[in-house]
Structures are given as structure tokens and as C-alpha cells.
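Contributing new records

If you add data, match the layout below exactly. Sequence lines come first and carry their own label; structure lines follow with theirs. Keep one chain per record. Anything else will be rejected by the validation script.
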Amino acid sequence: MTIGIALWLQPALLAALALRIAAGEADAPWLVLGALVAPLVALLAPARAAAAANPVAAVAAGGAVVMLLAANLLLAADATTLLGGAAWQGVVAAAALALLVPLVRSARRLAGPALVLGAVALVLPLVAVTFATSTPPWTVWSRGGWRPALTFSEASAWVQDGERFARPARLSFLEGQRVTALTAGVYRVVERDATPPTVREWHLVSGETLTLRPGDELTVAAGARLRFEAGRRVPGAPASGVAWADAPARGPRMLAVALGGLVTLVGGALALVPPSSARGVTAAGAPLLLLAGVVAAMGWGVYAAAGAPDLALSGSLLAPLLRLPSLALGPRTGATLALVTGAGVVLLVVGATVALRQRLAAATRAEPALWATAVGLAAALSVWPLEPWRLLTLGLGLAAAVWTPSVLVRGRGAGLAGSVVGALVFGGVAALPLLSPAAAAALGGLVRYPALLALPLGWTAARAVATFTGSDDREPMQ
């Protein structure tokens, strides 16, 4: 059971949830619910068929592990960026740590302690912030929801010395603002006060200022460093505290997005998290760790959005976790708590890496060369300009669409048919933004979560083949 929870509590997943809450994403509540419920469904589900004999499912297992690893490597890249280093240094350090897993004889035993200590280290600083400010998260949510506007404070690092963008960003300005470029480069501005919109490219050197008007959009490259004006609205943030706490996009129109997120998380958990037969203290401990991790992610996101809405601006997953303690408690105490949080993230990375290694070995082969190949592919994938959340949803969605249909039916032929159909549908829907941007925009939630369509169709195909061949009455593959 510990391996299953360690596999699910990927640090990139928890950090992504915190960032999406801080940014006021409309689907954040549904994703938090899915992150909490999905592994419990997998742990309590009956024993499922093995996917090792299904070559399509085995490839999907490898692809899912690579994408989850890449998301964690991007988390390490964010950490080095926040510390002033280069992103590739974090990727290399995290990849080297992952490669050491097969060389440690007692690696499997590390997952449990690393998971427990990591969860504790993630929760303790949040508790310290709660007691120091005498404001519990639910009160912070209420107060943040009443803010008339989410603006830069005088103490914001974006106002004082400027900050770097962890990945490319497109900023939308609700009001006029002067932005100072602290790194030389080309800054692209889309002016929407005319029809059609005007596109201008500005070649700025360090120290030059760019004046943006309401409605303008500024495209920023990864690594660019900017300084904003205090008291101005945070570009890209919700229009107000009310829009953050109760986003207008939440409603019937986002049903496909909400269902897509739930199907991706639950289906991915059924594929990745093995069922548990534990009893007693162990059976109760794993759900408690899961609850602690997800609640901590919620707490970090709420405190960041209400107290420092600009923390989500750079797109760095770790910004809310590492920068919030200093803003809430001062530089000295905050730096200590940030160090504790960072240590917790590292421990969660260790536990998740061990669990991913175990799952890859169970689905394919336990050869060190195969694990080294997976780590190398993940490192190469992390160089691409992809968002960690997109990598997470693609990895979990791939496992849900291709692997899950094969483990929910009996019979190798039926499982293979379900995997093939799931893979074809998943690949086609996921590639729509490249093949037909207009169709991708129209489909919305299906493109964001391809498993919403691929998983049901794959399972239907698998069930149809199982019924036709009479394999429903056979024992599951072991």
C-alpha cells in the first residue's frame, strides 16, 4: 500500500494542484477531489489483471512513467530557477538521483519512510504559517474572496528586484501598467484596442520600460526577468477575489472539463496504483498520508492566492511553497520553513522515484537499462517547453486510456483490443491541437483530457471482444 500511495503522491502533482488553486483555475476543486478519491478507488478495487503480457499496455506503462518522471524533473528545474541557477542543473541533479535507485539494494524500503517524512515536512510549515498568522485556511479563503482586486504588494519580489519566468507565458493586462525588462530580449505585444489586433515586437535591453494598456497581451520567454509596478493588478490573475474563489467559468459549461479531470485521475490510478490487501494500522495510515498530502497542497494554494497572488505569475510549481513562508513570517523564520518544505519535496521525489521504478518493473521488466532509458527520455522531454500539468495529465491519461481497459477485462485478446482502441483514440485526440487548432478549440475538455473519450471507447472494445470470444468466464491474467 505504501508503494501505491508513494506512486500517487508525485511531488509534481501536489505542487501543480497548489499552483492551480493559487491561480484560480476553475477546475481546481474537481482536480483536488479527483486527486483524493482516485487512489482510494484503486486501492479498494478488486484484484485486476496484469498488463505485462499486453505489449501495447506495456508501452503505455513506460510512456506514463516517463511523463511522470519528466514532470518531477521540471519541478527540480523550477527549484534551481528560484535559487538563481539554470534549469538544466536541476534536471541533471534529479535525473542523477533517479539513476541511483536501481543501485541501492534497500531502495524499496526507502519509499515508506521518505513518504511519511516528506508529507510531514510539507504540512509542518503550513501549520506554522497558520499559527503565526492566527488565520486558518478557511478564513483565508473567505478573506481572499472579498478582495476587490489581486494586485502587486510593495513587498513583492516582482516589484522590488524583479523575478524570472520559469516557462513561457502570455500575460493579459486588465489595466495599464509599465513593465521593466531586466533581461535583454524580444517582447511581443498584441494590442487589442483595434480591429484586427496589432502585433508589435520590442527589442529591449536591460532597464528599458514597456508601457502596456488595458487589453494588451505580452508574450514572455522562459528565463525572462521583469519588474512590475506596485498596486497594479497581477496580469493573468483573476479579476478579483470573488472571481478567484468562485470563478465564473464554474458551471454547466465546464462539465466536460470536470469529468475529463476525474476520468483521467481515476483511470490513471486504476492503472498505476496496485490494489491493497493491507489491514490494521497500515491500511489506515496510507489514506491518512494521502489526505495530508492533498490537504497540504490545498492549503499552500489558498494561502498563496490570498496573501501573494503574484506567486503564480512565473508558472513555477514551487513558488507558492518556497516563497510563501518568507512573505508570511519574515525572511529569517520563512527561510527555515522554506528549507523544511524543500526537504519535504526532495523526500517525496525519492519516494515517488522508487515507486515509479517498481511500477515500471512490474509492467515490463526489472532491467536497470530499461530504467536508465526511461530516465534519459524523461530528461529529454523536460527540455521541451511543456507545462508540468500537461505532462501529468498526458501520462495519467495515457495509462488510463491504454492500460486500464486491459486490466479491467479477462482474456489477453480482449485486453489487447481495448489497449489498441484506447491508444488510437487517445493519440488522435491529443494530436488535434497540432492537426486542427479550430477543432481542438471547439472540443475543449476532450482535448485537455483525451482519456475522457479514449477510456470508455477502449473499455467498450475490450468488453465487446471478451463477450464475443467468451473470455468473460476466464480467470484474470497473472
